[in-house]
Amino acid sequence: MIRVGMIVPANNVALEYDMYRMAPENMSFHSTRMRPSRNCEPDDPVKFRNDLKQAYSLLRRSSNVIVYGRTFGTHKNADIIREVFGRNVIIPEEAVIEYLHESESKSMWLGTPYIKERTDEEKEYFSKKGFNITGSYGLNKIYALDIARTSLEEIRCMLDKNIGTVEKSDLIYISCTAMPTSKILDKLSSIYGKPVLSENSAILWKISRITGNPIKIPGLQDI
After folding, report:
1. Which stretches of 5-150 are DSSP H helices?
2. Between the chain's N and C termini, which has fewer beta carbons within 10 Å?
């Protein structure tokens, strides 16, 4: 049995649901919660480090690998996260980048549930990592429960509105661990004829790489 420890923001109701739907039977998930931070980013590094250490103490003995299950702003605090957890911690945005490199995807279309300011920040982050962002769009949602209610129809509408830039991309990327995508990734890949990666499917892909456990990832080719 592969045991995955997950640190989940207290208001995220999608990550655990998605992981259980996508994962094989020989994988279990064990979560602890962290209070959500104002503006989705820690504003007190000392307190953030202490909260991480407490979470780690609850998970380290029972987990083969640990996931830090937040998306927006995580890259700004990646050094602190790695300092506490070590190299085997999965940081979702970094898992996305690793997949893009391994699959040799040069361009992607970015969809988020966020307001424009946050969507633009995500776009800038991936652009600085050397990827061509053919287009981006945010659903203008703020609260985690609203994000968790995002439907297939909303995502299709977002993509269809931007179909010109979607078609120019190697891959469609749907950001945010708080948005459930396990039921729709294969459907989207079939509709748009290209790989569709979500934040949560990237986590599962990275788990498969760390553990050496082959897993079929929804929305992607078999690995």
Report:
1. 15-22, 45-59, 78-85, 92-102, 116-128, 144-148
2. N
Of 36-50, 144-158, 181-195, the poorest mean pLDDT is in 36-50
Q: Which residues contact 165 (CB under 8 A, 6 or more apart)?
A: 109, 134, 135
Measure CA of the first residue to CA of the last residue in the chain; give whole Å: 20
**Helix locations, the chain, DSSP H:** 15-22, 45-59, 78-85, 92-102, 116-128, 144-148, 152-161, 163-167, 185-192, 199-211
Q: How far is CA 222 from the centre of its chain?
A: 19
Confidence of residue 86 (pLDDT cuts 50, 70, 90): confident
Three-state secondary structure call for residue 211: helix
List b or e across 100-117, with b for residues whose CB sees 16 or more CB atoms inside 10 angstroms.
beebebeebbbbbbbeee
